[in-house]
Specification:
Elements: E1 10-16, E2 19-27, H1 29-37, E3 42-48, H2 55-64, E4 67-71, H3 73-80, E5 89-93, H4 101-111, E6 116-121, H5 126-138, E7 143-147, H6 156-161, E8 170-174, H7 177-185, E9 190-200, E10 210-215, H8 223-228, E11 231-234, H9 246-261
Parallel strand pairs: 3-4, 6-7, 6-10, 7-8, 9-10, 9-11
Antiparallel strand pairs: 1-2, 2-5, 3-5
Helix pairs in contact: 1-2, 5-9
Amino acid sequence: MEKAEKNIKKSIPVKSGEDETKEQVIYGRNAVTEALLSQSGIDTIFILKTSGGMGKILALAKEQDVVVKETGEEKLRALTGPNVKHGGVAAIMAAAEYSTIEEILDAAAQKNLPPFIIAADGIQDPHNLGAIIRTAEAAGADGVIITKRRSASLTSTVYKTSAGAASWIKVARVSSLAQALGELKKHNIWIYGAEADGTPFHKAKMDGGCCIVIGSEGNGLSRLVRETCDQVLSIDMYGHVNSLNASVSAGILIYEAVKFRRKD
């Protein structure tokens, strides 16, 4: 067995904007396989496009619903370091444990309150996602739903930006947000999407069970997600700038919902 494949965990500095955080990265086929077998909380696996012989890793990843991304040599070197034998595969460990939608609904039931959920439709900036999670937890939301593809995940950057809130609020990761929202609607949860051409948010009565969906930084809500929403809301703009940061928009709508949930 190659020495590199004995390395189960290694903290690798990874640049993210102006911050430098420590991602828990493992690399080598044996190391990644063992991590999967022990269900050690892998967030994402990166496999070199030209690599073969990854059948067992791919099968275990599929079984555990772990995201797998094909990548190039440059990305793997950035993750593992320039002088290691990575064996064509590396994995990033999740900074916090993922939950399920059922667990989020159970958390709401235990509070004896209508469910209050935030969903991120393809938020790719980890700082935005971390800020949304932080606001959701501060506002007493029951959970946050994110997508597996084209989205930031619970990396250490997200965890750090959330100021540790990712440890206190349940975060579910789904393959299809539109399908997940459809399931929420079966529990009498009203789905509110955020979009520039929607109804002004102050005209909405956000009482009862609700899920606020924030679209991606560049494209907003995806088509299927928007079609699933019961109502699309906008935030009034009075200045020269015609848009807000995704996490700022989330904060405004989250606390608008809080106004209807307060009992005092």
